[in-house]
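Weekly puzzle thread! Below is a chain. First person to post its structure in token form gets bragging rights.
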Amino acid sequence: MPESPSSIETRLAIPSKSQTDYVALARELTADNDLNLSPLRAAFLSSFSIELMEPHLKVELASQGFLLDHFFCPFDQFEQLVLDPASELYRFEPEVVTLALQLEDWLPGRLCRFTGSREESLFLVREHVVERLENLIDGIRKNSSAPIFLWNMAEPARLAAGFADASLEFSEQQFVAEVNQGISGLCRRSQNTWIFDFHRTAYEVGLKHFYDLRLSYLARMPFSQRAQAHLARNHARCFALLKMRPKKCLVLDLDNTLWGGVVGEDGLSGIELGEDYPGSAYVDFQRYLARLRNRGILLAIASKNNEKDALDVLTNHPSSILRPEDFSELQIHWKDKALSIRNIAANLNIALDSITFFDDNPAEREWVKSQLPEVHVFDTGTNPIGYVDVIESSGLFDTLVLTPEDTERADHYRIERQRRISSRSFENPEDFLRSLDTIISHELLDTESPQFRRVLQLLGRSNQFNLTTRRHTADELRRLLEAGGIGVTVSVSDRFGSHGLVGFALAVPPSGHDSKEDWRIDTFLLSCRVMGRRIESALLRLLVDRVRGRARDVAIIGEYIPTPKNSPSRNFYPEHAFEKIDESATQVRYLLDSSRIPELPDLYSLKAE
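Winning reply:
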């Protein structure tokens, strides 16, 4: 009797699956998509027989919500397929392409004679590998705009110099690192191209368990079943990032979560936090959380506790890695935790579905699940040794790129908390805003701008003040700008510190070219962390001035496309001199007459970059 959908779903969630499990689940998924998975057309171009990974790829993608529709290139024919515009690859019309190429397949003669090679010749080999990869990417780009994942390289299972490799002036391991640096640079300068970290994947599994000589000789598949499963899992996590936004905030309990014991009962000196186990496990967990914060994940506290006792640990305990200033919001009281999480979302101005919750107490976890189904609740287990892996294996904080704004995000929110506290001493909101001495820096966006990737992040993440919620890809945004579109970015700073780049607006001419006819505001968005400060008024005025600087007498069309989350921006155009011209169930359109100019509040200074 076939398994029910709920049974399949349960089995998909099991982290350690056997080869038999993968084959059985893949067959069931092929027979019937009762899980309402989203189809994903993925092409895999490889220098080995990657089709043997089909069950693993199908199952791991299903666990991320996708039903795999795949194209596997015939063995070692990827270059012919890429260079032929009429090939089966392009008829497949992939939504994502993976280039899975191994160094041993490209340089078999060179690597076995590595110890006899000069460093200069190896540098030329490195350049040859990168150039060949660049030609492949350029070939794909001529026929497809699909995102590309390019494998980097791992060290061979057997080094040419053996143990002596580490002592060589230019080692084989160093050579592979140099090749990977070249691949990294290639991906940074190539449109919509990302690294799939094959090197890290091999390290996670361990080289001893990663390769399978028997499979390699018999089927031209060099990787063990264990390695295939891990490779498929990491591919699924990467593909998911193309469709899903990472979570923004991790809400944490304190007692038996950040330290062992209950501070209200055990006191500062009695809790478990220090060099000896289990205190050392909590210290390591805090170190991991600090790394999350430093890459842009907001940390917050929801704890039933005496605030003074809890803050005493974070402020004064010598082994505490995290301090009060590391948290963007503190909810420490005796009220229920669902209310605390609602308060955190409101104070940080983020959506509930961007929040995750980590608490050792199963009763608290179940309560939050029942009250806030939008919030992801981690099943933590009871052993602090496993806390890091619970979060890391979830993939909820994965990202394909890290920008300077990401690394500064937590500090921005900490500073915003200081602003919020300062605002309480002002009766008039406008007096408070003037007291901030806000400076808005603005510049035009072009395809080579260093801000381009940050703008793509805002396009993918902004929800509340986003009038159209168009999630343009890098290629789409480039096309709009190259066709005459005007993109304006704004960055904000004040006496408390900098917010970084927080707003973007894009106006496009009719038919994709300069014209005296109406222009259309395709995208208008603002980061939630500066909402309520009238920054949007400045962004609109800057955009309108730029458009009219190019075509003086044009009228400008503004669009509002309602979503479940962007209601805070629904009245933006009527409040800024736009008049409604038509409305449907899915869109409202407004017109700014050529004789009218949106007002600019006297709350800040403008500075052109």
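Puzzle host: Confirmed. Bonus trivia for everyone else. The chain has three domains: 5-241, 249-392, 433-608.
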